[in-house]
Amino acid sequence: MEMTQEKKRMSVAKQISDFKSGNEVAAIAAAQINYHVMGYYPITPSTEIAQYLDQMKLKGEHDIMLIPADGEHGSAGICYGAAVTGARVLNATSANGLLYMLEQLPVQSGTRFPMVLNLVTRSVSGPLDIRGDHSDLYYALNTGWIILTARTPQAVYDMNIMALKIAEDVRVRLPIIVAYDGFFTSHQKRRVSYFFEKETVQNFIGKPPSGFPRACDPRHPVTIGAHMHGDDLINNRYQLSVALSNALEVFQEVALEYAHLSGRMYQTLDLYRMDDAEVALFLLNSAAETAKDVADRLREQGIKAGVISPNVIRPFPAEDVRRALKNVKGLVIGERADSYGSHGGNLTHEVKAALQEDRDNRTVVVSRIFGLGGKDFYPHDAEAFFRLAIDASEKGYAEQPFDYYGQVPGNQELKLNPSKKLQRGDDFKSGLIKVTKNEKTGKLSVKIPPLRMLTKKPKRIAPGHGACPGCGIFSGLELFFKGIEGDVVLLFQTGCAYITTAAYPYSAHKQTFIHNLFQNGPATLSGTVEAFFELKRRGEIEVPDDVTFVMVTGDGGMDIGMGSAIGTALRNHNMILLEYDNQGYMNTGSQMSYSTPLGHMTSTTGVGGKQQGKPFHHKDTPQIMAATNIPYVFTGCEAYPQDLVKKAAKAQWYAKHEGLVYGKILITCPLNWKSEERLGQQILKAAVDSCFFPLYEVEQGETTITYDPEAKQARIPLTDWLKMMGKTKHLLREENKAVLKSLEEEVERRWRKLKLKHETPHL
């Protein structure tokens, strides 16, 4: 598999040398390949790939159709749907994103449709940690996908190109993952060489293979994914297994061909100083690079040290592992993920299984779990691993075959105590808010005192959270909570509000607080609500029953969490579902969400010659939720505080007496709206007065506009709102006249429709 230096010099294609991160070069490779479709959903740290591709598309550097999904499960469906047509398809994800799409992955491999997925590895929650380990990658081992692992940005680029060619080979035809370490490889810039011309890449990969079933030719109808019984399914699985085994040979062939083109050779195992090694470390991805420097130092001390790092883990290169470990006396396998309860991570068991086939092998294997949640791996850590290997080789056995490395026991003396007096019940009761029901109309009447009298009510969230200057989340939420009397149980979905208030070991929450993921918050709190009342019914807890359950979502949570929200609404649990709308996925870097309005600029809907911001209109979530026939739906914002406090009081009454409430409050995000921090209230007021964000409620199915800027002679042009934010100023330019007109027409259409509902209770 080696190539001569002379041939290497003769055949290497022209390349550019630069400093790039792993995510950057993954995007460059994708653009040069010019995939047909990328279905994607933003999740840190893989999000940048879609962002870079969006920026490159503005410059005309590729023609990839970038399709923003409503969640990773949807993105996997988009990719599979595109792949069955024979299109070339790309995706990127991390951590819980991979788990959310997991059930789709065996469908794609089982029906044998190639595609490429960049897995930027990250710790799987909970608890939530957005930094890199391999707990997500290990979930993919049994999906039937080929898995390549890339230690450096250079390897990320090269393997993204090799991956598609391997996946499409007639002996394989399987989807493939390129996995690399989140924040280590994905964000750190290293020297990288990439091809000067995209044609070099496209000629290497070749044209898409033909002669296979695909769902794009009506003249040749096909059935894809038909139900199978056991006798047929075992044959299907056997063929998949054979194809996956074939991928090892195909990888070696493609790697050699790529080496002639690039000058860079990838074996199934990256072996560093392993020719005569007696002690070695087996490490996946970036940690191996750190260990190589330590191996050099130990060699200077006369210790025969080496490092093994696989470039392929599916199929697992068992024969190559046996060969590499033939003379190794002590081996430490370091893994950034555990296979809980099995006394070793997945690779530990696979290496041990491979060695079982070699009766003459005497390697003592030591397993250590390290580096979870992005914990750094330094040279002294690698040296500690080598010392374990040396000790095992000298003794002929491992003192402790399996353990964690780097864990620290807790110290009770350092236990944190609340810095503020925790509050409950009567502390949050003003006694000044009166809600009464009109038995004739069935509607609620609310009386609130002057707002200054409610300032005595303590805040639900303590000061000291980590939100950006000018963030509207907490001023909006706290104003809403002024209308809520008594105890609350809060659930926050993942998002800025959660991240900035509950970073272990600290919490800014004064009352019970729960976190769960974007896609499952409503269902989670509905379980809490029902369990609470069932425990009370059985007499197993003795607490007041006047608790209000509130789920807070935002940052696009009503995209990925829409199904859960609708299901919870249809079941009509006694709870409030409150959305703060900042018009994007702000916690992952201001990507487009379905609440982003038409033409607004985000990090995945850039503005340039080929694109003018988001290409479609924003989702009207209050109307969607009203269609579930829940008792109460409302909109609000802090620019109209009395209106919001009254609606909060109504929301609490309905949540306690009749069922689920949904509310949307518009809040500002100066950082990503590119607006002045001090102008938050003015921007919100302009959004309402321009009729972009109408204030209304749907109570018992009847719509009431609670503030009508037209009736008050206060309506302003939509452009007065748009010019206050940097993300929308481009819409005021002459060349974007058509986009602005479309947005103005949609705002007007929704406003007129809302007025008709206000005037006609039966609508």
Question: Mind explaining what this structure looks like?
Answer:
The chain is α/β, with parallel strands linked by helices and 763 residues long. The protein has 3 domains: 15-216 and 227-262, Thiamin diphosphate (ThDP)-binding fold, Pyr/PP domains (Rossmann fold); 269-404, Rossmann fold (3-Layer(aba) Sandwich), CATH 3.40.50.920; 467-604 and 613-759, Thiamin diphosphate (ThDP)-binding fold, Pyr/PP domains (Rossmann fold, 3-Layer(aba) Sandwich). 36% of the residues lie in helices and 17% in strands. It contains 25 helices and 27 strands. Strands 19-18-20-21-25-24-26-27 form an 8-stranded mixed β-sheet, with helices on both faces. Strands 3-2-4-5-7-6-12 form a 7-stranded mixed β-sheet, sandwiched between helices. A hairpin with a 6-residue loop joins strand 16 and strand 17. Helix 2 packs parallel to helix 7 (153-168), helix 10 crosses helix 13 (379-395) and helix 17 (521-537) runs parallel beside helix 19.
CATH fold field value of the largest domain: Rossmann fold
The assigned CATH architecture of the largest domain is: 3-Layer(aba) Sandwich
Task: Determine the fraction of residues in helical runs and give it as a percent range.
Answer: 25-40%
Number of beta strands: 27
Largest sheet: 8 strands, mixed
Return residue spans where pLDDT drops below 50 for at least 5 consecutive residues. Answer: none
Category by helix and strand content: alpha/beta
Average pLDDT taken over every residue: 95
- Portion of residues in beta strands equals 15-25%
Oligomer: single chain
Strand line-up across the major sheet: 19-18-20-21-25-24-26-27
What's the total helix number?
A: 25
Overall tally of domains: 3
Pfam families: PFOR_II, POR_N, TPP_enzyme_C
Protein name: Pyruvate flavodoxin/ferredoxin oxidoreductase domain protein
Domain Pyruvate flavodoxin/ferredoxin oxidoreductase pyrimidine binding: 29-254
Keywords: 4Fe-4S, Electron transport, Iron, Iron-sulfur, Metal-binding, Oxidoreductase, Pyruvate, Transport
